[in-house]
Specification:
single chain, alpha/beta, Metallo-beta-lactamase, Chain A, 6-stranded mixed sheet, 11 helices, MBL fold metallo-hydrolase
């Protein structure tokens, strides 16, 4: 959903965007790269941080893009023209989703042992997201296939065409993340990284991915927010079949509130959309948005027992394609679970095998 209060934010670069295969300076030692995605959300922002490790000058790459020939070719253009002749020293992924981690294996291999660089270009990521990526690149749990179709059917999705397409998406994640580096460096909440003399503090977030890492450089007044805070759309917060009783939305909202101590003048570098100022305003907008959706969810369940598929027209006022429907089902469940696990709804499984949620009497 587009942000109806976007005017409360400001965009210091205006409409300026880096063209494919180029980079824009956005802050001292920070460059902005933008890659294409084959979805309705058609781009991802990636970041280059000027670095030095073990006396080797170079760059840290933050997030990677999906695995395809077009993204690799665009990266090669960036390498040729926007690294000042220096190598990539490490690859940092905010979380395990394909647009963020997809090309990590290629980037690490591409720069390991490069002239003037380190013997191995290492992936840095949280341990939880690393292990989930390793599993997902070899499996279909939580991301498509028979298990996902059965899970959504148990929450009211009965359209056979949609279920058949979900079953057919068994290779969805591996198609964009065909491999994950075998070794990594662990990122943890509160950890401070020295990146070229600038201190970047890791801030963990939950709900969108299990252990999402944002990066805050207080000296620069910059937050690389990943997917936790986006200016125009609300971050997808889902329940999936691999963790069927998750309370993702409560975790996400708690994570947003932990960002409130950051300066309101922070320059936010999001994974989608444009760099913006107005962090506190955006946090308030996102929290209010979900509070409104929780109220809508509660009202629907007070009117009649409701399953997640039945809640889609309440939460989403626009037509949804299959890609959007799978995310929307996860979001619907996240709102239902937040109320259910807080004791404001109860859940019952009917004779048809479908879970419905109703208000506590």
């Amino acid at each position: 959903m587009a942000n109806p209060r976007e005017s409360e934010l400001s965009y210091p670069l205006g409409e300026q965007l880096p063209a494919l295969g180029t980079a824009l300076d956005i802050a001292p030692g920070v460059r902005w790269v933008r890659m294409q995605l084959p979805f309705a959300l058609d781009h991802i922002n990636l970041w280059l941080l000027r670095d030095e490790i073990d006396g080797c000058p170079g760059w840290t790459v933050v997030d990677c893009g999906i695995t395809n020939a077009e993204t690799q070719a665009a990266w090669e253009q960036v390498f040729a023209a926007h690294l000042d002749g220096l190598p990539v020293l490490r690859v940092l992924a905010t979380h395990f989703h394909p647009d963020h981690l997809g090309l990590a294996h290629w980037l690490c291999e591409r720069w390991s042992g490069a002239p003037g660089g380190l013997p191995e270009c290492r992936l840095w990521i949280s341990a939880t997201d690393f292990q989930l990526a390793r599993l997902a690149s070899r499996s279909t749990e939580g991301l498509g296939g028979e298990s996902a179709a059965a899970f959504f059917a148990s929450h009211g999705l009965t359209d056979e065409d949609s279920l058949a397409k979900i079953r057919a998406r068994a290779a969805y994640y591996p198609s964009m993340v065909p491999a994950v580096p075998a070794r990594f460096r662990r990122l943890m909440d509160g950890q401070v990284l020295n990146v070229g003399g600038t201190a970047w503090r890791c801030l963990v977030g939950h709900g969108h991915s299990p252990e999402h890492i944002s990066l805050h450089a207080e000296s620069l007044g910059v937050l690389i927010s990943g997917d936790m805070v986006l200016p125009r759309i609300s971050t997808n917060v889902s329940v999936v079949d691999s963790e069927p009783e998750a309370d993702s939305l409560t975790l996400y909202l708690d994570s947003l509130r932990r960002l409130l101590p950051l300066s309101p003048d922070t320059l936010v570098l999001p994974s989608h959309g444009k760099p913006f100022r107005g962090l506190h305003a955006r946090l308030a907008q996102l929290i209010e948005h979900h509070d409104e959706r929780l109220a809508d969810t509660l009202a629907a369940c007070q009117a009649a027992p409701t399953h997640a598929a039945g809640l889609l027209p309440v939460l989403f006022k626009r037509p949804l394609d299959l890609h959007q429907t799978t995310f929307a089902m996860g979001e619907s469940l996240a709102h239902l679970h937040a109320l259910w696990l807080a004791g404001r709804l109860r859940r019952a499984r009917g004779a048809d095998g479908v879970y419905r949620f109703m208000a506590e009497s």
